[in-house]
Amino acid sequence: MIAIITGDIINSENYAVSEWIDILKNYLSKYGESPKDWDIYRGDEF
What we know:
By secondary structure, the chain is mainly α. The protein contains 1 helix and no strands. The longest helix has 13 residues, at about 15-30. The two termini are about 20 Å apart.
């Protein structure tokens, strides 16, 4: 079975990317590898 779940970092423009990008990547890496299993696109959407 394949599912697509998307997300968006709300109000990300109020924070430097360096404040949240590594946290998001670390969390998503628990569920697979980028870009095979997950990807961050358009800045703050995944």
